[in-house]
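Same chain as my last thread, 262 residues:
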Amino acid sequence: MEVARAKHVTSLDLLKSRVDEVGPPRNFFQALVKEGDRAHTRVIAEIKRMSPSAGVIRKDFDPVRIATQYAQAGAAAISCLTDEKHFGGHLGYIQLIRKEVGLPVLRKDFIIDQYQIWEARAAGADAVLLIAEVLSEGELLDFMILSRELGMTSLVEAHELERLLKIEPHIGFPHRGYSLLGINNRNLKTMTTDLSHTFRMAELVEDSKRVLVSESGIKTADDLARLRSHGVNIVLVGEHLIRQDDPGEALRELLGNIKKTS
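reply #2:
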């Protein structure tokens, strides 16, 4: 297990000392939530080499080069996969990206232990993904509190409606401006994506719509326009961009199309 190996190599006390050395986090929440701006979509551009459903997505994988392309193309933030077994990621990618790119960076991983949150901040992460389906309510709240104490934003992700309704009241806890609500459009049983999943779920979270993030299955400017029509102005786009010859140009084209269709 990756967490157990990490704990054996680096103690929690050592991680905490490293947190004091990395400097303050960048404001991931502020980069994405623009009050009163409903005409534009902010993109969290994702970096990943492979996935369980797609296998190896990009053979010529250079996370720093891709992050630089994203930043130049107009991404609002970066999502970096750090899970090694399933996504070919590495925690060290965050450190490398942060040295070259000024955007806030999300650590995307299966966070199941508070140690990983300290680990994320020590690596320079500005936000962490918390998957509601793999955490108890108590764990989720504890992780959100710790993330806030470390100055990081929590992207709390739900797949199923029942789970969404349980976690939605906690968005904004423990302090408004440090948590986002993610809706994953991927069916974890069939691994297919359906954008209408966000549309259905968004109708039930009116109070949290300003911080809603639609994830997976987003490929076109028309997809973004449809999301905006449902009040969703933040998206996470990964596999579609990574598959292109030039991920930055693909994002630039997407954002250019947004302007044409708004």
